[in-house]
Amino acid sequence: MAKPTGFLEYPRQDAPKRPVAERIQDFKAVEQPLPEAALETQAARCMDCGIPFCHMMGCPLKNLIPEWNDLVYRRQWREALELLHGTNNFPEITGRICPAPCEAACTLGANDKPVTIRQIELALVERGWAEGWITPKPAAAVSGKRVAIVGSGPAGLAAAQQLARAGHRVRVYETDDRIGGVLRYGIPDFKLEKGVLDRRIRQMEQEGVAFETRVRIGEDIATPYLRRAYDAVLFTGGARVPRDMQAPGRELAGVHFAMEFLTQQNRLVAGDVIAADALISAKGRRVLVIGGGDTGADCVGTSVRQGAAGILQVEILPRPPEKRDPATPWPLWPNMLRTSSSHEEGGERRWSVQTREFLGKNGRLCGVRAVEVEWKKDGKGRFMPTEKAGSEFEIPCDLALLAMGFTKEGNAALLNRFGIETTPACDPVLDANGMTNLPGFFVAGDLSKGASLVVRAIQDGRTAAANVNRWLAEKK
Ligand SMILES: Cc1cc2nc3c(=O)[nH]c(=O)nc-3n(C[C@H](O)[C@H](O)[C@H](O)COP(=O)(O)OP(=O)(O)OC[C@H]3O[C@@H](n4cnc5c(N)ncnc54)[C@H](O)[C@@H]3O)c2cc1C
Ligand code: SF4
Question: Does residue 303 sit in helix, strand or coil?
Answer without folding.
Answer: helix
